[in-house]
Design goal:
- Belongs to the HGH1 family.
- This is Protein HGH1 homolog.
- It comes from Owenia fusiformis.
- This protein has helices at residues 4-15, 24-30, 32-35, 41-54, 58-65, 68-76, 83-96, 100-108, 114-123, 130-141, 144-156, 158-161, 163-171, 183-191, 195-201, 209-212, 222-235, 242-246, 252-257, 268-273, 291-304, 308-316, 319-329, 333-347, 365-389.
- The protein is mainly α.
- Helix 4 runs parallel beside helix 7 (83-96) and helix 21 packs parallel to helix 24.
């Protein structure tokens, strides 16, 4: 326990100061010693609790972020032998990693390797902090610069912390009995911003993306579904893999369509054209409840329609009837907009020769910006009209 004098000194300091009057030099002199690993566990505990509390307010975050010594001390406590202290340090960093500049600064601190520490926690089957480490790594990789730094590290240390190990940890039930590891899916989604990560996941000699497909309907966690479908959507941006993704070796289309399908009945002709997994669905079949996930599914299918072979395949598999019924059911305006863009492709005529690849069609930047503004305005107008009618 604290010596009475030490406790009085610390508590008095905390409650008699406000953030605007804090002197950095005085904090380093009076408070930083509480975070040192050489201090007593009870001192580290109350010190870390205090700094965790600061991360709950913008001024507190700014104060900590501006002090490299405090940042390094908090990061070093992520591996503290006292579980409660390590947990508070991880939570503090989750709160701090809300903007890109802070993420880049944390990753470039020379004294500590935060990414490696997070990955080691995640891959440790007995770690009590794996889920918090997943959340922290998801925050770090949410921004492209952070995702690039983490992707480079993972690629450089494949034997130790490879992507295949992360995928295995997520896919193996009860990999860590005390943690669910749902946020690994968010990390994968973020990392697939980076081409090297997408290439690894779509390596035709491995079986990585195939292991992710069943999670498009993982009812236990919206976070996991969101992350996996985000990963699949990002992979669909690489047109050179479309033929392989649509082939029997992956068969991605049914996995993208099934969450969008409802209980509607089709005649035998329409059913016969659908992928086998979408034929004669149960009357209790429910659509994906999360609108953002529905939108990502539609965007992924839209990407697969970028080239002529992909469009013809999606049309041949009668994706239109699923989209048609979804259009009757859908209420979310942003999802509806993405859906109508896809339907236009599915029912439209094929582009003229030389323009078959929709991604290769050059649109002047000024027109692109104009169209984007028109799209945003249309969605906003529809939301305004809907709000007025309610």
């Amino acid at each position: 326990l604290f010596h009475a004098a030490e406790k009085r000194k610390f508590v008095t300091y905390i409650f008699n100061r406000n953030m605007s009057s804090i002197d950095k030099e005085q904090v380093e002199k009076e408070l930083l010693p509480f975070l040192e690993k050489t201090s007593r566990p009870d001192l580290r505990c109350i010190g870390m609790e205090y700094f965790l509390g600061l991360t709950g307010a913008p001024e507190g975050k700014l104060f900590i972020i501006s002090n490299n010594q405090i940042l390094c001390a908090i990061i070093e406590l992520v591996t503290d032998t006292q579980s409660a202290i390590a947990k508070d340090a991880l939570f503090a960093l989750v709160n701090l990693t809300q903007d890109e500049n802070t993420v880049v600064k944390l990753l470039r601190l020379e004294k500590v390797d935060l990414t490696m520490t997070c990955l080691e926690y995640i891959l440790d089957k007995t770690s009590p902090h794996a889920d918090i480490a997943c959340s922290l790594l998801a925050n770090i990789t949410r921004f492209e610069k952070g995702a690039q730094i983490v992707a480079d590290l993972i690629m450089a240390k494949q034997d130790v912390i490879g992507l295949d190990k992360l995928v295995s940890a997520m896919c193996l039930k009860d990999y860590n009995p005390s943690n669910r590891l749902h946020y690994i899916a968010a990390v994968l989604s973020n990392l697939t911003q980076i081409p090297s990560t997408r290439q690894f996941i779509m390596d035709k000699d491995r079986c990585v993306i195939q292991r992710l497909l069943p999670f498009t309907e993982f009812t236990e966690s919206t976070i996991r579904r969101h992350g996996i479908i985000g990963t699949l959507r990002n992979c669909c941006f690489d047109t050179e893999y479309h033929e392989w993704l649509l082939s029997e070796k992956v068969d991605i289309l049914p996995r993208l369509l099934l969450p969008l399908a409802g209980p509607e009945e089709f005649d035998d002709e329409d059913n016969g054209k659908l992928p086998e997994d979408l034929q004669y669905l149960e009357p209790t079949k429910e659509r994906e409840p999360d609108p953002e996930i529905r939108k990502m599914l539609i965007e992924a299918i839209n990407q697969l329609c970028a080239t002529k072979p992909g469009r013809l395949y999606v049309k041949e598999k009668n994706a239109y009837v699923i989209m048609r019924e979804l259009h009757k059911w859908e209420k979310d305006k942003s999802v509806m907009f993405a859906l109508e863009n896809l339907v236009d492709i599915l029912i439209g005529d094929e582009p003229e020769k030389g323009m078959e690849n929709l991604k290769e069609i050059h649109i002047p930047e000024d027109l692109k910006q104009k169209f984007d503004k028109m799209d945003d305005a249309l969605i906003q107008d529809e939301k305004t009209i809907e709000a007025k009618t309610q």
